[in-house]
Task: structure prediction
Amino acid sequence: MPVEPPASVWDFPPVAVAGPSDVVAAGADLEPGTVLAAYRRGLFPMPDSHGPLLWWSPVERGIIEVDTFAPSRSLRRARQRFEIRVNTAFDQVIRACADPRRPGAWIDAGIIASYTRLHELGWVHSVEAWDGDVLAGGLYGVAIGGLVAGESMFHHRTDGSKAAVAGLVELLSDKYAADRVLDIQWVTSHLATLGAVEIPREVYVRRVERALELPLPEAFS
Result:
C-alpha cells in the first residue's frame, strides 16, 4: 500500500479562484506531500521554463469514462498486439515521456525526481505495452483511491501508447468503475480518438472528492 509522506507546508487555494484561467497557483515545491495535496484538490503541476512552477486545473477537464469506455475496432486490434504490464519499467517509461526531442516536451529533471520518489512511495505507477521483450509504449500517472491521473505517454512502436491507455482502462474496470476518475488533463485530437471527453472543472472536482474514498485498483495496491 502507498506510504503517506509528511504533509505539505503549502496550502492550495480552491480551484474556483482561477476563474476562466487553467492556472490556479504558482510556486510551492514538488515534495511528495505537496504533489499529493494538489491532486486531491483537483490540481497538477507543470513547470514554466520562464517562471515559477505552475499548478493547473483546466476549466474543461479531460477524462476517460471508464464504465462506458467503448474502444474502436482499431483500438481493440492495437490492444491485442501487446502485453500490458504494470510497474516493471517505470524509469524507462518516465524518461521516454521526458524525451526533450518530443514536441511540447515539459517533463524536466525536477518532475522526474518528484514522480520517481512518489513511485517509490507507491503513489505513481507505469502502465506498459510490451511486444515480446521490447517496451513498445506506455504511460505513467498518479493513483489516489479511485483517482488515476495520467501524466504522459509515449510509444516506440506504432500503437504502443494507445494499447497502454486501453490496458489502463481494463485495470480500472472493476465494481467501482462508474465512480473512478481517469484524468487525462486536456482533450487532444489524439486522446479524443481514444474516447476522451471534457467535463467542467467544478464537476471534475466533485467527482474527485468522491473518488478519493474508493479503494485503489487491485493492480496498483
About this structure: The chain has a mean pLDDT of 96. Helices lie at 32-40, 73-80, 90-97, 109-121, 160-172, 189-193, 201-211. The radius of gyration is 16 Å. The chain is about 30% helix and 25% strand.
